[in-house]
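Example record for the data management plan.
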Amino acid sequence: MKVKTDFKYVGTRPIRPDGLDKVTGRAMYGADLNLQGMVYGHIVRSPHAHAVIKSIDFSEAMKLPGVLATMSAADLPEPGDKKIPGGEVDFELKAFSPIVMARGKVFFHAQSVAAVAATTASIAAAAAKLVKVEYDVLPHVLDIHEAARDDAPLLHEDVFTQGVDPVPTRPSNVSAEIELKMGDLDAGFAAADLVIERTYSVPMCHQGYIEPHACVAQFDENGKVEIWCCTQGAFMVRTLTAAVTGIELGKIKVTPSEIGGGFGGKTTIYIEPVAAILAQKCGRPVKIVMSREDVFRASGPVSSSETRVKIGVTKDGKITAMDTDIIMDSGAFSSSPLFPAVMFGTACYRCDNIRSSGREVLTNKPKVYAYRAPGAPQPILAVECVINEIAQQLQMDPIEFRQLNAVNEGDLPLFGVPFQAIGLQEILREAKKHPNYQVALGENQGRGVACAFWINAGMQSSATINVSEDGRVNVLTGNPDIGGSRASMALLTAEVLGIPVDTIRPAVVDTDSIAYSDLTGGSRTTLATGGAVIKAAEALVAELRKRAAALWGINVEEVDWIDGSAVARSGTGLETLNEARANDGHAPATAAKSLTLAQLAAQAGVTGGPLCAVASHNAHNAAPSFALNMCDVEVDKETGKVEILRYTCIQDAGKPCIRPTWKARCKAVLCRVSAGR
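Corresponding structural encoding:
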């Protein structure tokens, strides 16, 4: 297939399709929806980090006027060992259900224990305080090293360390171990003239999205539940809610609202099944909005970690061996991004002898979730710090050292898939000559340099394109827009159809209105959902050519699609037909050798019916990306205050797809000074 290289619309900067609604306040976020007869849910949370739930008494809460329903884990089916389809991997239901509602035991402070629904939010909050929960408090453990000890308080009796051969016979808080290696590590270090080994720690932190988790759930008389929520994946909400509640998946409809930030933290569920069960029990729509406090206490942060890095190099700067070991805090249930952490920490550098290992440890903290390239930042921080120290000891320029060791096309990283076209070397060349790298540093000033790597996901996406009678186009997808993806979908559609972007309306729709789509995450949306949009647009073009051929009475092979119009080729049957009709004294079959999309749409009723196209895409390819960051700082020797002087990020963007008139601006964007005096 010939790859298009010149673009008319891709690379331009139209007004974002969601922009006006957001700046005018019309955009509907998770907490903005209100339904007639709606009531409010409030969740009772554990005051303990580790405890057995002995009893839950709702009697006093139910006496409060306005309280309509209560729930606990007793209203949910036993999770058992059921697996949940999760796109690339399957998840264990027993690690999801307790986050929605604790069953028999709590594993972290603020874990959900019970819930109430009442006619006002204040009554619901007051009722929640009247719910009496009796606990048998257990010892807890918060430190990963303490949790990994044999005598540590045990979180789960049924967790045995995975990845160890033979499988252990006694349970442990170390839930998984991974080791990847290639080459001869001992020989690599023996060949080194300089070996540096350091350990770096990264604390647990929250994604800090502006909008808290919020949802509204409504049951109807046919047993169908509708959920409106802020999420990175409506189908994910449907799948997990069905699994946790036991409601048939086909009876759940999820509509994603606008999303006020996610950064990976809204790739799961917390309150949606609770709202659904309460709505079912009280027969009215139920809204639940997490407080900011509850978001920080009870929703999944990023893993804390400790990474040990050992790197050997020759005196001329060639890396001979790399050895990394990372331990990651997964919170109370196995979910840390340990595998990408082990795979990607050394991905920027070419080395024949590498070992990377990792351990996932369970602690009495909230179950962790993604936070922008999950698993990659923690080990990359450690590796890059050691790389800089090596360059300093060898008295080499840190960028030149990286140029000597950076991966190229064809190199085999630790995760076993050779790199195809990548731009790390180009990034390093641009960085070396960038004006910000040439600035002389003054007293108490320093410069940091670091490379980074991420690989995007593929997975499943769907798209539908509908054409209205006046030729305007609606593009429907199932991926919540957390970074401008609707604009991308409109641009891709415009490029294939050859019509102006402002005639296209992209929309993110509910789970009943589009085929299955995996969640928005892993940098997959433009790749996978964009791929589905392109397929749908190409299918629509094929149909438009067919409709035009029917109107002209010629073969479809004689019709091209150019700049938003069907065009009959010169010397086609159309000219012969018109010439014959003219000789017989008849009017031409059509006076035009081209028909616009709008003209074809206006005649759709007589050429086969409404114009639409549907496509699905399962993207197995990936487009790994590299980056280099440079930061100049000044430190006040008396106060220790650090001030950023210059920060420059250079990205491996692949083909930016930019019109010639945008080249200068593109370069400025890709080599942007993000902060300055």
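Summary line stored alongside the record: The chain has a mean pLDDT of 92.
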